């Protein structure tokens, strides 16, 4: 039965399309479940790090807190400001969320490639799709007709464009080593000599990737597009109810997708001894997610005037140096 969901092994026909449709719904359900408990875990971890208890009222150990929060958002009145561009205001959260979910198609969660497209241009697909989300953010900020929302949207656009360059360049080092843009082949290449995950030879690229990914996800210390103390809630200041939930979903689905990408590119994906491949993937991606939560709990927000210069003057030169070193290594070894 599981072979039915290995899309990479079958030609595109009606049966394969049906399998892709059902598989997408299964992945959507699993991801929504992961997002629900990732939010709860983040609140718990940050609570413990700041000597607070965290959510503990709804259900045992607060396990139903996020479910209650989601139900509250879905039952809220859908408010659209009078002077907003109503059409753009309505579709902007969907434009932001859809690419976040679509990039999961190329993230190989298991060794058997279940629910994975296995594209030969998987890296290009991921980078291209993830760049579309910023359009939904800019449209949402502009359509709100609110000064805080438009400032947050413009900050987000500038931040994402600036940090997307070092992010892509850090991935290029891995692509050079593996000789492929296919993420499945990149994972398999890490089983070859010298039998180490790419995080070791690509440690500089991983550091650049980690910082740029944090900025791309707009998480602390790069959460300037939402910075509550300056911009209320940034680009989604005027959003409420299920449209607000779409923006929040996009943020956490991207977090899961980025963690899955990091596990595949730098930590050997599903490879590991004794445990099943999917469990190794969960452990590696989970460690990346925990690092993001830890960073949010401990790092202060950087100043807005430091945001752009850090990318152009520090990260991009480091990413270029990593590319140069990787290319030199490939020529001589």
TrEMBL record:
Q: What is its EC number?
A: 7.1.1.-
Q: Which Pfam families match?
A: NADHdh
- Give its localization: Cell membrane; Membrane
The reactions it catalyses are:
a quinone + NADH + 5 H(+)(in) = a quinol + NAD(+) + 4 H(+)(out)
Write out the coiled-coil annotation as residue ranges: none
How is it placed in the membrane, per its record? Multi-pass membrane protein
Transmembrane regions: 17-40, 88-111, 123-144, 165-183, 195-215, 252-272, 278-294, 314-332
What PROSITE patterns does the annotation carry? COMPLEX1_ND1_2
Which family is this protein grouped under? Answer: Belongs to the complex I subunit 1 family.
| PANTHER family assigned | NADH DEHYDROGENASE SUBUNIT 1, NADH-UBIQUINONE OXIDOREDUCTASE CHAIN 1
Q: How does it assemble?
A: NDH-1 is composed of 14 different subunits. Subunits NuoA, H, J, K, L, M, N constitute the membrane sector of the complex.
As for what it does, the entry says: NDH-1 shuttles electrons from NADH, via FMN and iron-sulfur (Fe-S) centers, to quinones in the respiratory chain. The immediate electron acceptor for the enzyme in this species is believed to be ubiquinone. Couples the redox reaction to proton translocation (for every two electrons transferred, four hydrogen ions are translocated across the cytoplasmic membrane), and thus conserves the redox energy in a proton gradient. This subunit may bind ubiquinone.
What is the designated name of this protein?
A: NADH-quinone oxidoreductase subunit H
Organism encoding this protein: Collibacillus ludicampi
Gene expressing this chain: nuoH
């Amino acid at each position: 039965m599981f072979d039915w969901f290995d899309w990479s092994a079958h030609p595109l026909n009606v049966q394969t399309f049906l399998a892709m449709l059902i598989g997408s719904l299964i992945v959507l359900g699993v991801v929504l479940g992961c997002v629900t408990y990732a939010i709860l875990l983040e609140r718990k971890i940050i609570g413990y790090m700041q000597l607070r208890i965290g959510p503990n009222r709804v259900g045992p150990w607060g396990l139903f807190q996020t479910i209650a929060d989601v139900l509250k958002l879905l039952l809220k009145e859908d408010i659209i400001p009078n002077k907003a561009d109503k059409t753009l205001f309505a579709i902007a959260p969907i434009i932001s969320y859809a690419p976040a979910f679509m990039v999961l198609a190329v993230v190989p969660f298991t060794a058997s490639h279940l629910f994975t497209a296995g594209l030969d241009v998987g890296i290009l697909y991921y980078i291209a799709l993830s760049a579309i989300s910023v359009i939904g953010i800019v449209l949402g900020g502009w359509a709100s007709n609110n000064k805080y929302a438009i400032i947050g949207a413009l900050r987000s656009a500038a931040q994402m464009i600036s940090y997307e360059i070092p992010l892509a360049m850090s991935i290029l080092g891995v692509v050079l080593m593996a000789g492929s843009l296919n993420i499945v082949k990149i994972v398999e290449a890490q089983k070859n000599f010298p039998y180490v995950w790419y995080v070791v030879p690509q440690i500089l690229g991983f550091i650049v990737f980690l910082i740029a990914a944090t900025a791309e996800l707009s998480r602390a210390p790069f959460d300037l597009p939402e910075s509550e103390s300056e911009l209320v809630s940034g680009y989604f200041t005027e959003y409420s109810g299920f449209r607000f939930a779409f923006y929040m979903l996009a943020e956490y689905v991207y977090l899961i997708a980025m963690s899955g990408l990091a596990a595949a590119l730098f930590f050997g994906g599903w490879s590991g001894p004794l445990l099943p491949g999917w469990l190794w993937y969960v452990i590696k991606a989970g460690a990346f997610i925990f690092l993001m939560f830890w960073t949010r709990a401990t790092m202060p927000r950087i100043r807005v005037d430091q945001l752009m210069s850090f990318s152009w003057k520090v990260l991009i030169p480091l990413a270029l140096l990593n590319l140069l070193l990787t290319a030199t290594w490939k020529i001589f070894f």
